[in-house]
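quick one before i forget lol
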Amino acid sequence: MNAQNQKALSTLKSEIEDFTNEDINFSGRTLVVELIDDALKITDENLPEFPVFLSTSSDLMVVWTVLMSRDQVPKELHGEIAEILLNANSVTGLSNFSIDEGNYVLSGELSASSPIEIIFTEIDELMSNTVTGLQIFVEVLNKNK
C-alpha cells in the first residue's frame, strides 16, 4: 500500500473511532476499528463474524463484507439465491449483493472525499443490510433441507 493510502486509512480510523465515541447513537453499535494491510476492518461487537472492510483510493471508497462462501451453498441453490439477491438489491439502500472471488458479498461505494457522517451512514447501512442478507440465506437453505 502506498504511503498516501496508509495515511488516509489511519486518519479515517481515528475519525471513525472519535465519531462513534461521541454521544451519537447509530443503531446502538459498538465498533472495533483495526488497520489491516490496505484496508480498515470494522467490527460490530454484536456481529463479529461479519466485519466490514473499507478501502480507499484517491477518489473512491469501497466498503464490503463477505456473507458466505459459494461453496457453503449447495450448487442446485446457486441460481435461486442469485435471483433472490439480485431482487434484494432494490431494497437494500446504499448496498449491493454480488459474487466476488467465490464469495457472496455485500458492498457499497462512496466518494473518498465524503464527510465522516456519510461514511458512517454507509458502514451502518451495510451492517444492517448484512442481517437482511443473512436472513435470505437462512430462509433459502432451510426451505430446501
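fyi The helical segments are 3-21, 78-88, 116-143.
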